[in-house]
Structure formats: structure tokens, C-alpha cells
Amino acid sequence: MAMIDTLRKVPLFTELDDDELGAVAALASSIEVPKKSIVVQEFEPGNSLYIILSGEVKVSTYSMDGREVVLALLGKASFFGEMSLLDEEPRSANVTTMGDCKFANIRRSDLVPLLLDQPRISLKLLTETAARLRKTSGMLKRVSSMDVPHRLYTYLVDHCHRFSQQDTDGWCDTVLPTHQLLADQLSTSRETISRAISQLKRDDILRQGEGRGRMRINVEVLEDLLADF
Q1: What is the 3-state secondary structure (H, E, C) of the chain?
Q2: pLDDT at site 139
Q3: CA atoms of 100 and 56, how far apart (whole Å)
Q4: Does residue 199 register a pLDDT over 90?
Q5: Distances (CA, A) of 188 to 96, 144, 222
Q6: What is residue 19's predicted lDDT score, i.e. its pLDDT?
Q7: Residue 35 or 7, more confident
Q8: 160-195 per-position pLDDT tens digit
Q9: How many Cα neighbours within 13 Å face the side chain of 50?
Q10: pLDDT tens string 24-60
């Protein structure tokens, strides 16, 4: 029942009833992976879909000069590994645990019959995959056309919309990745990100929140700055 309750919160399975969720849960095996472990390695064959039950992972690749480029950070109820399931090509990125993680793992040989039997899951999987491709495309466009401050503004607005609720006064309360992870995602240095964040604090667009690591972000002001760019 615990697995069914968890799967119910995964966007991929939100439209399924209890019987259908039970069918998915019967295919899933639970695995625990320690911090800083590689779960999926780029260019290796892939035959499983992973659903994050707890913890957070980093999705990344490497540029031609050997620099790591972080494509996404995924948390509880997110999933990864779907690309290789759809096209049977090698893994398109590395996935590394940021802390101790627990995953539900479903093998391709078990998942494909389920997708054929449940078109709603197939459509959801395609929709989520398309959304991720659009996001990656948008990120690459930002990196090539925006300066670092505006890349950071765009990231912060997107982060707030995805992971927190905006107050009526235009502020959101959230936990941000480390400056190094932000730099890796925005193709710049940690020092440059630190300077940009310090400037946002001086401009009273970014404030220290209540609790360790929490920040208050004025989303409305950032959206205005992006509109004027």
C-alpha cells in the first residue's frame, strides 16, 4: 500500500485508479542508493525507469572541454530513465544522487506491456518527456543568448513556479541549490553566481528566509526585469 500511495503522487500515474496503480506497484522493485552514487551513466545501455521515492538526484552531462553541465535537479515523485525506454538507445545523461535516495525501479520488459495496456500512461510519459526536452532546449537558448544575471533571474522564476507557492505580495519561499550547482546549470563560475546573488540581496529581491537554506524571492520583480530584457 505504501508503494501505491507514493506512486499516486507521481505525475506519470496521477490519472490511474487503485487497481491500475496496484498493477504498476507490482512491477516495481525498491532500491536504496547512497549519497554521491551514479545511478545512470551516459552512453550505457538502459533498460529501467526510475521513480524517486525519497532524496534528490542531479542530471548532468559533460561539455567538449570536460566541464560538467547540470541539466536538472529532480526530487521526490520525479522519474528518469524514460528516454532509453522509448527509443532503446544508450542513456542520454548521467544521474547522480545528491544524498541518500530510495527509488522504485521498473524494467523495460515489464513496463512495455503495461504501456500497451494503459494508453493513459503512455500519453503521460510522452507528455512529460516532451516537456523536459522543451525545458532543456530553453535552457540552452538562455545560456547562448543571455548574460549571467538574466540566466539567474530566469532560473529563479522557473524554480519558484515549480517548487513553491507565490505569496499574494509576489514573493516565494524556497530552498535553492548550492552556488556551485547553480553555476553548473547556468554555465558559469561559482564566483559569478555568488556576486549575482549578492547583488539581488542588495537590491532586496532576495532575502534570507526562515529556516536553514531557505530564501525569499521576489518573483514579480524578476519577471519585470526579464520582460525589460
Answers
A1: CHHHHHHCCCHHHCCCCHHHHHHHHHHCEEEEECCCCEEECCCCCCCEEEEEEECCEEEEEECCCCCEEEEEEECCCCEECHHHHHHCCCCCCEEEECCCEEEEEEEHHHHHHHHHHCHHHHHHHHHHHHHHHHHHHHHHHHHHHCCHHHHHHHHHHHHHHHHCCECCCCEEEEECCCHHHHHHHHCCCHHHHHHHHHHHHHCCCEEECCCCCEEEEEHHHHHHHHHCC
A2: 65
A3: 8
A4: yes
A5: 20, 12, 20
A6: 82
A7: 35
A8: 887 777 787 889 998 888 899 899 888 889 999 999
A9: 26
A10: 888 899 999 999 999 999 988 888 889 999 898 999 8
Vertex 104, ends 103 and 107: CA angle to 5°? 125
Taking residues 58-69, what's their average pLDDT?
82
- Dig out the grid coordinates for 56 from the structure: 534528490
What is the four-CA torsion angle of 113, 117, 123, 124, rounded to 10 degrees? -80
Record the cell numbers describing residue 180, joined without a space.
Answer: 556551485
* CB neighbour list of residue 151: distance below 8 Å, 6 or more residues apart: 142, 143, 186, 187, 188
Q: Which of 149, 134, 225 is nearest to 186 (CA)?
A: 149
Report the distance separating Cα 21 and Cα 173, nearest Å.
33
Q: How far apart, in whole angstroms, are the C-alpha atoms of residue 96 and residue 218?
A: 31
pTM of the model: 0.70
Q: Which amino acid is residue 220, in one-letter code?
A: E
* Amino acid symbol at 128: E
